[in-house]
Every structure is written in C-alpha cells, then in structure tokens.
Amino acid sequence: MSHTDTQFDNVTVIKQANVYHDGKVTSRVVKFADGSQKTLGIMLPGEYTFGTEAAELMEITAGSLDVQLPGSDSWQRVEGGQSFDVPANASFNLKVYSLVDYCCSYFG
C-alpha cells in the first residue's frame, strides 16, 4: 500500500520525544483537531520488538525493514512508500536495515 500525503495541516505537535531501544527509535506525537493522533519517527538500524494497545498503520516514508507480524513465522520486506497494519494488543518484530522514517496512525 502506498501513501501520498506529505504534510499535516492544523495540528499540535508534542515537543517531548518518545525514546525507545536506547535512543535508536524516536518519535513525536502529532495531535489532530478531531482528537486522533499519529507519531512521526526515526528508527536506526537494529532489531526491535514493539507492542500495541490500539490497532496501528505503520507507513514507511523512507528506508527499509523486515516486519514479522503477530501470528506469523515469516518476515515481510517493507520499503519507503509502503505500509503495514498491526492489530491491537499485539506484539511485532522489526529488522531495520537502513535509517527508517515512519508515520504511525492509531485506530480504536
């Protein structure tokens, strides 16, 4: 799946960074007028496991990684311009190969 939006208008950005995995993954929260929010972030090369509370859409805007989604033994390559969905209350694994720029949207 590809994504063509390049900017968000009329939003609030939280200055405090979310920092994970010893600083190798960071993000900032973007809040929209309708109450929804997204995070914009960067991941450095490495292997990571993340958990979800809400369902997520991870849009990769640059870089490449492999993702192992919940319930799967296989890995799927995702590159800039592609995305993947993660269900709520789940865990997923990433192998990041180059600096990854991402946008994460939350549902539910």
Automatic annotation (TrEMBL):
<keyword id="KW-0328">Glycosyltransferase</keyword>
<dbReference type="InterPro" id="IPR009664">
    <property type="entry name" value="Ppnp"/>
</dbReference>
<comment type="function">
    <text>Catalyzes the phosphorolysis of diverse nucleosides, yielding D-ribose 1-phosphate and the respective free bases. Can use uridine, adenosine, guanosine, cytidine, thymidine, inosine and xanthosine as substrates. Also catalyzes the reverse reactions.</text>
</comment>
<dbReference type="InterPro" id="IPR011051">
    <property type="entry name" value="RmlC_Cupin_sf"/>
</dbReference>
<dbReference type="Pfam" id="PF06865">
    <property type="entry name" value="Ppnp"/>
</dbReference>
<keyword id="KW-0808">Transferase</keyword>
<comment type="similarity">
    <text>Belongs to the nucleoside phosphorylase PpnP family.</text>
</comment>
<dbReference type="InterPro" id="IPR014710">
    <property type="entry name" value="RmlC-like_jellyroll"/>
</dbReference>
<protein>
    <recommendedName>
        <fullName>Pyrimidine/purine nucleoside phosphorylase</fullName>
        <ecNumber>2.4.2.1</ecNumber>
        <ecNumber>2.4.2.2</ecNumber>
    </recommendedName>
</protein>
